[in-house]
Amino acid sequence: MDYKAIFLDVDGTLLTDDLTIALGSVKILSSLARRGLLICVVTARPPAASLFIYDQLGIPQNPIICFNGALILQENRILHEETIATPQLLQILEEVKGYVVRPSLYRHHDWLTEEVDRWVHQEMEITQTTPTQTEFNHILSADFRPNKILCMGESSEIDALEHHLKQMDLPDLNFHKSKPTYLEIMNRRASKSKGIERVISAWQVKREEIIAIGDNFNDLDMLRYAGTSVAMDNAPDEVKNSATFVTDSNNQEGILKALEKLIPL
């Protein structure tokens, strides 16, 4: 297969557990980009927590798909976005009050939280970004429409919240766990696969010509969409079962090994 594009999840996939890109991954992705393949990150992260990857790989001109597909940027220009309308935002924030979780709101480069607790501190360390602390009531009156709501908490609370929200009549929203303690909420029109679809349509690339690599439940739709999909060895079984094949873990040069297998160097 003559592949033309590679779409990569970030946490647990492109990044090792110490939040760096393995040297082999940097070398092979940079080499493939120089050969003309489109390399694109598809992540739940905000732009500020992702663009360092593009600098490291030498692809600052490439599009980046953030917030699980709710925001697509290229060189800081918005190519497409989906937002959560104020009525749905109000409803989610009200339902969240019944659970021990910390909600955050994201729009473009802004990260808003009402309290900087241990969950927010953890996310600050992971993403190397800093939120703005504010009362959500202040922004709701201004019709603030986030690209994403992130709820962080113990896995039992996140599971219970996810189950509760999925039982409600919320047809305009999507819910995905990016890891056991994180529940991501976006407009239903936003997904990793839809973000990829928009990018490859603009770049005139076919589904059969792309590789998607991921490790968690919010990667399932893009793995099922791509012509060839790769799950990391650290992925849950459901994710592994949805991929074309399974590579090594994010800590054991899984991306390098997968791409060496798929693309003649």
Question: Secondary-structure map with pairings?
Answer:
Layout: E1 5-8, H1 23-34, E2 38-41, H2 51-57, E3 63-66, E4 71-74, E5 77-81, H3 86-96, E6 102-107, E7 110-113, H4 118-127, E8 132-133, H5 136-140, E9 148-152, H6 155-167, E10 173-179, E11 182-187, H7 192-202, E12 210-214, H8 220-225, E13 228-231, H9 237-241, E14 245-246, H10 254-262
Parallel strand pairs: 1-2, 1-12, 7-8, 12-13, 13-14
Antiparallel strand pairs: 3-4, 4-5, 6-7, 6-9, 9-11, 10-11
Can you describe this structure in just a few lines?
The chain has 2 domains: 5-81 and 190-262, HAD superfamily/HAD-like (Rossmann fold); 86-187, Hypothetical Protein, Haloacid Dehalogenase-like Hydrolase, Chain: A, domain 2 (2-Layer Sandwich), CATH 3.30.1240. Helix content is 34%, strand content 23%.
Helicity range: 25-40%
Structural class: alpha/beta
Give the overall average pLDDT. 95
Q: Going across the biggest sheet, name each strand in turn.
A: 8-7-6-9-11-10
Shape: globular
Uncertain runs are none
- Please give the number of β-strands: 14
Which strand-content bin applies to the residues? 15-25%
